[in-house]
């Protein structure tokens, strides 16, 4: 783990609660809501989200998202990136053709 990772993690609001709070059972909706509430005011949520997406976290609540939600967010981001790249390729091709 890099120094940068340690730095943002040390500033996470979840450091003030038991790890059990942030790793609720997947079907325990009240516990998931409790974990989301911890994330809601966290100052390092964006860094946490990036870390969770790139490391494909399979357990716990990260940046207010469950692993299923993280997977859906990653898939949506991939689709948006593909559309953006396709649009750029098409724009470049139309400029070459003109
Ligand atoms: S966003 Fe949530 S899981 Fe991430 S560091 Fe903050 S409190 Fe912890």
Describe the protein in words.
The protein is mainly alpha-helical. The chain has one domain. Helices cover 67% and strands 0% of the residues. It has five helices and no strands. 13% of the residues are buried. The model has no long low-confidence stretch (mean pLDDT 94). Bound molecules: iron/sulfur cluster. Iron/sulfur cluster binds at residues 12-14, 22, 38-39, 42, 44-45, 48, 62-63.
The oligomeric status of these chains comes to single chain
Q: What's the tally of helices?
A: 5
What would the principal axes of the Cα set say about the shape? elongated
Number of domains: 1
Quick summary:
By secondary structure, this protein is mostly helical. It is 67% helix and 0% strand. The protein starts with a helix and ends with a helix.
Helices, strands, pairings?
Layout: H1 3-10, H2 19-22, H3 29-40, H4 45-55, H5 67-97
Annotation keywords:
98 residues; mainly alpha; 5 helices; 0% strand; elongated; binds iron/sulfur cluster
């Amino acid at each position: 783990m890099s120094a940068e990772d340690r730095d943002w993690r040390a500033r996470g609001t979840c450091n003030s609660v038991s790890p059990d709070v942030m790793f609720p059972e997947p079907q325990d909706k009240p516990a998931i809501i409790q974990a989301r509430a911890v994330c809601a005011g966290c100052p390092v949520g964006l860094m946490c989200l990036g870390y969770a997406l790139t490391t494909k976290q399979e357990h716990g609540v990260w940046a207010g998202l469950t692993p299923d939600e993280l997977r859906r967010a990653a898939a949506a981001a991939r689709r948006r990136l593909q559309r953006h790249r396709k649009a750029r390729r098409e724009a470049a091709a139309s400029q070459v053709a003109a």
